[in-house]
């Protein structure tokens, strides 16, 4: 993979590590935000690998859905997880009087890890197919 894709995955891994650390420090809102960024960077890596680059969060989510979920290249549940994570991150950041439950955050850390791993494996398989 090229440097751009590796940078996206490095950022995704860093965000996931931050999510775990923040969770253990009981900083659940920040942990949830880091979970979202894990997915955002992984989705951005996939798009960039295919020559698609978007700077806005909504564009990354929209085009991830259009180019990969709607076409059946990526399982539908991953598109749903990304959309849900975007909404939950938004709620955690801006709806400050709504609680962020630790058990939900623990689930989202696992979702973020699974999302990133799936995208990494998907791109590795694509690279192997083109080698």
Give the helices and strands, then pairings:
Layout: H1 3-24, H2 28-49, H3 57-69, H4 76-94, H5 102-130
Low-confidence stretches: none
Strand content: under 5%
CATH class call: Mainly Alpha
The overall pLDDT, averaged over residues, is 95
Basic shape: globular
Q: Quick one: CATH superfamily?
A: Nucleotidyltransferases  domain 2
Q: Report the biggest beta sheet as strand number plus sense, adding barrel if it closes.
A: none
Number of domains: 1
Radius of gyration: 15 Å
Distance between the termini: 12 Å
- Helix residue percentage: over 70%
Number of strands: 0
Number of helices: 5
Assigned CATH architecture: Up-down Bundle
- Structural class call reads mainly alpha
Written as H for each helix and E for each strand, in order along the chain, the element string is HHHHH
The CATH topology annotation reads as Four Helix Bundle (Hemerythrin (Met), subunit A)
Structure description:
The protein is globular. It has a single domain, classed as Nucleotidyltransferases  domain 2 (Four Helix Bundle (Hemerythrin (Met), subunit A), Up-down Bundle), CATH 1.20.120.330. The chain is mainly alpha-helical and 131 residues long. It has five helices and no strands.
């Amino acid at each position: 993979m090229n440097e751009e894709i590796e940078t996206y995955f490095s950022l995704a891994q860093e965000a996931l590590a931050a999510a775990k650390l923040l969770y253990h420090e009981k900083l659940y809102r920040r942990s949830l935000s880091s979970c979202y960024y894990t997915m955002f960077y992984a989705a951005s890596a996939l798009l960039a690998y295919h020559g698609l680059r978007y700077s806005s969060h909504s564009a990354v989510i929209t085009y991830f859905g259009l180019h990969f979920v709607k076409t059946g290249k990526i399982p539908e549940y991953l598109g749903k997880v990304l959309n849900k994570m975007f909404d939950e991150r938004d709620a955690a950041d801006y709806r400050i009087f709504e609680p962020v439950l630790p058990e939900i955050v623990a689930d989202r850390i696992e979702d973020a890890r699974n999302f990133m791993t799936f995208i990494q494996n998907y791109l590795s398989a694509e690279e192997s197919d083109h080698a």
